[in-house]
Design goal:
Helices cover 25% and strands 27% of the residues. It has 6 helices and 11 strands. The radius of gyration is 17 Å and the shape is globular. The relative contact order is 0.19.
Length: 212
């Protein structure tokens, strides 16, 4: 995963390198060229030592406790294989085409910070993300204690699971879905991914980003 090196041991069992100047330059060039971007699932955990990536994508999943925008967060929460209902917030958006008002999906969910005031919401889960007891500690998982929340808690998470935002002149979409084969076989998941890629690559999306 970009910006995380899982060591399988040590304390903590992960190191967090910063992106190189060349890697940051790639993002700068994508932004300036207006290249559409689609991020999915664990991409929101990438480059935790670089706050610019959280700003870019619209939030962060933490494998380790960290300070983000002056707020200290514990490691984030996760829960696998949840069958949950997703409400479509903006059925008129191209990414939501063909989904109806709501749909069900079995997938992993996160309890982590999202910059809700900086993104345009597309979909929200009905799963109680405000209850950390329904989630497990990411830090404990990478220490070998999977599905454990002993001694762990977290502020209420966001129920936002899909959004779009502007990244300079580039249109950007983030979709939280995509943990494994059960999800990949789902027709609605495939529809969302297809819609997101087509939207991000469209002249309509590029014009929207540039005309902000």
């Amino acid at each position: 995963m970009p910006g995380l090196l899982f060591t399988g041991g040590g304390d903590p069992p992960v190191t967090l390198p910063e992106p190189t100047a060349e890697q940051r330059l790639v993002f700068d060039r994508l932004r300036e060229a207006g290249v559409g971007l689609v991020f999915m699932h664990h991409a929101v955990a990438s480059w935790p030592a670089w706050d610019g990536f959280a700003d870019l994508v619209g939030g962060r999943f933490h494998y380790q406790p960290a300070t983000l925008r002056g707020v200290h967060y514990p490691d984030s929460g996760y829960v696998f294989d949840v069958e949950h209902t997703i409400d479509v917030v903006d059925p008129t958006h191209p990414i939501c085409e063909g989904l109806g008002d709501s749909f069900s999906l079995t997938d992993e969910l996160y309890c982590s910070p999202v910059f809700e005031d900086e993104v345009i919401p597309l979909m929200r889960t009905r799963f109680p993300v405000d209850d950390p007891r329904r989630f497990y500690s990411a830090d404990q998982a990478i220490r070998g204690r999977r599905n454990s929340n002993e001694g762990w808690t977290h502020p209420a998470g966001s129920n936002l699971v899909a959004w779009v935002k502007r990244f300079g002149d580039a249109p950007l979409a983030y979709i939280q879905f995509g943990d494994g084969p059960v999800t990949y076989r789902d027709d609605n998941f495939r529809r969302v991914v297809r819609n997101a890629v087509l939207w991000a690559a469209s002249s309509q999306a590029r014009d929207w980003a540039r005309n902000g």
